Amino acid sequence: MREEIKRKNNHKDELINRIIEAEWSMFDEVNNEGGRAACQDDEWTFYAMRYSQHNAFSVEMLESYEQDIMDAVQEGRNLLTEKYAYMMEYTDPAYFEKNLRKHLPQVSAGKEEIVARAANLSIKFQQDFEKKYPAFAKAGRPLTGTDGTDVSLHVYTLGELKTYSVRTLELYIRDMRESETNGENIAFRIHRSTALFYGYDSLDEAERRLQNR
């Protein structure tokens, strides 16, 4: 990944950059049924989206996730391939059961419960964000559902969270709940960072400009 893309302001950025480099390498190796996707050659968008996501969370949670990545590499697993495979449990259940489930790490009932709790919290936060910034929210993924060409945020989140360890999931939920207690949920943090990447000065400016499109 090109160095000029990366944020390099502090120790947390260094951690995030290591994570994104590892994710990008995994993303580059994902095999799609229809051939290589255009987004697999779009370093800037990948970095902007993943940085915005990761920067909203604590260093402790990110360090735990980095350990998940290192464990997966040692085991010869690709977490990005697994994420997209887990998503197909919702978008194409028959294909998932026939071709994918047997190749994926088994998700215990306990972990399924934590994943569902974390994903539902993410959706609740996004709903709160949509109430204040509907035009900005509309520019992203649909919130729920399994139909259509755009995978919903709910399905995407479920797929990603299933690749996390239980340790990382617990820290993820802790950070989510702490953000709510502190007065601004994590969805606002993520989208504010995304808005800055796209040249807006603030979420309010992004909302005004998107409303006028």
Characterise this structure.
With 213 residues, the chain is an all-alpha fold. The chain is built from 11 helices and no strands. Helix 1 runs parallel beside helix 3, helix 2 runs antiparallel to helix 10 (186-197) and helix 4 (79-91) crosses helix 8. The two termini are 32 Å apart. The mean pLDDT is 93.
- Could you describe the largest sheet, including whether it forms a barrel? none
Shape: globular
End-to-end Cα distance: 32 Å
Given the helix and strand composition, which structural class is it?
mainly alpha
Mean pLDDT reading: 93
How large is the radius of gyration? 17 Å
Taken in chain order, the helices and strands follow as HHHHHHHHHHH
Q: Could you tell me the number of beta strands?
A: 0
Residue share in helix: 55-70%
Total count of helical runs of at least 4 residues: 11
Which segments are poorly predicted (pLDDT under 50) over 5 or more consecutive residues? Answer: none
Features:
213 residues; mainly alpha; 11 helices; 67% helix; 0% strand
Summarize the helices and strands and which ones pair or pack.
Elements: H1 11-28, H2 43-55, H3 59-74, H4 79-91, H5 93-100, H6 109-132, H7 134-138, H8 153-161, H9 166-181, H10 186-197, H11 203-211
